[in-house]
């Protein structure tokens, strides 16, 4: 049952003439699935960067208001 | 008693912390299943007697179609839970399920069209199954649009949950379309009530891909909902502490 169905890699690519159809489907699907993983991870990264910036600004303002107490930042 | 988990589920923070450990496992399992299933289907499963090698598209077409329907259930049910019990997390799941379901519906329509060219000699026909799948895509797009149409998140959730629930009428139509109007799309070959009309050498790689797609769906729905939780709760202390820990180089 687990027999490689093609004589060579070239034949695997060609799929006896159906290659472009089959590989186009797999390619489009791969891109779509990658998009589903990457887009929420990217959104999360942007959110953390935004929060980090806000925290830096807040820390800066605190340091400016009372310079004596807040030496660590 | 016994209902504590249900109330906890309403807490986005509890959900975020609980699901943290699941992500790597789901990622490994779904990647492994998809890789094995794809290689098996592309290179090791026998060619179809009538269709030759073009039938290998089945290994993504059918799982994607399954998930576009299962994803719709998840979206509609979480929309209903959000409507009835006002559970914030359910609304977030509904919102996140819409674009994911739309992508799976898109995959099944596009791979179907590409498969149709060498098999039926045409990219597109207004066949009952294909048309009802196109309606499903529009329902998903409608939910996405409604989510963005309102200033108030609560109003947006209510409107899109109602659209999702009304749209469930399309689901039995999709299932039954190949039997009611037998125009062009073939009926199902995998049956649960009687013996499948697909040979085991093709069925096993297909099942591998189906399970792989389910795991992948769970993975992306989790990642997306977790991001949604963070975005909605970005003013809270715990999210800010998480961001600070991340900035300090810790793993989040």
What does this protein structure show overall?
The complex is a heterodimer of chains A (73) and B (252). Chain A is an all-alpha fold. Chain A has a domain at 38-64. Helix content of chain A is 73%, strand content 0%. Chain A has helices at residues 9-14, 19-65. The termini of chain A are far apart. The mean pLDDT of chain A is 85. Chain B is mainly alpha-helical and 252 residues long. Chain B has one domain: Four Helix Bundle (Hemerythrin (Met), subunit A) (Up-down Bundle). Chain B contains ten helices and no strands. In chain B, helix 2 crosses helix 9 and helix 5 runs antiparallel to helix 6. The longest helix of chain B has 33 residues, at 88-120. The chains are: A mainly alpha (73), B mainly alpha (252). Chains A and B meet through helix 2 of A and helix 3, helix 4, helix 5, helix 9 and helix 10 of B.
**Fraction of residues in β-strands of chain B:** under 5%
Rg of chain B: 20 Å
- Globally, the shape of chain B reads globular
Taking the sheet with the most strands of chain A, its summary is: none
- The number of helical segments of chain A is 2
Oligomer: heterodimer
- The total of helices of chain B stands at 10
Strand content of chain A: under 5%
Sheet with most strands of chain B: none
Q: Which structural class fits the helix and strand makeup of chain B?
A: mainly alpha
**Second CATH tier, the architecture of chain B:** Up-down Bundle
Structural class by helix and strand composition of chain A: mainly alpha
> Helix coverage percent of residues of chain B?
over 70%
| Topology of chain A as a string of helices (H) and strands (E) | HH
CATH class of chain B: Mainly Alpha
């Amino acid at each position: 049952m687990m027999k490689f169905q093609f004589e060579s890699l070239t034949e695997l690519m060609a799929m006896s003439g159906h290659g472009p159809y089959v590989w186009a489907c797999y390619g489009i699907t791969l891109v779509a699935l990658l998009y589903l993983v990457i887009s929420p991870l990217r959104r999360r990264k942007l959110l953390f960067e935004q929060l980090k910036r806000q925290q830096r600004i807040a820390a800066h303002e605190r340091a400016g208001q009372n310079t004596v107490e807040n030496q660590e930042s | 008693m016994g209902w504590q988990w249900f109330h906890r589920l309403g807490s986005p923070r509890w959900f975020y912390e609980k699901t943290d450990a699941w992500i790597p496992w789901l990622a490994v399992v779904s990647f492994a299943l998809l890789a094995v299933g794809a290689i098996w289907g592309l290179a090791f499963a026998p060619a179809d007697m009538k269709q030759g090698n073009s039938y290998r598209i089945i290994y993504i077409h059918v799982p994607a179609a399954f998930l576009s329907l299962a994803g719709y259930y998840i979206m509609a049910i979480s929309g209903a839970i959000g409507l009835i019990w006002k559970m914030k997390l359910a609304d977030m799941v509904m919102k996140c399920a819409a674009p994911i379901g739309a992508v799976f519906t898109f995959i099944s329509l596009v791979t179907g069209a590409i498969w149709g060219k060498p098999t039926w000699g045409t990219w597109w026909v207004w066949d009952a199954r294909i048309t009802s799948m196109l309606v499903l895509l529009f329902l998903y797009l409608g939910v996405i649009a409604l989510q963005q149409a309102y200033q108030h998140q609560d109003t947006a959730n209510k409107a899109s949950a109602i659209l999702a629930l009304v749209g469930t009428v399309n689901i039995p139509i999709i299932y039954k379309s190949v039997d009611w109007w037998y125009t062009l799309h073939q009926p199902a070959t995998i049956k649960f009530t009687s013996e499948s009309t697909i040979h085991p050498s093709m069925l096993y790689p297909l099942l591998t891909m189906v399970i792989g797609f389910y795991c992948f769906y769970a993975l992306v729905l989790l990642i997306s909902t977790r991001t949604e939780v963070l975005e909605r709760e970005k003013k809270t202390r715990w999210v800010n502490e998480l961001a600070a820990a991340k900035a300090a180089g810790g793993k989040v």
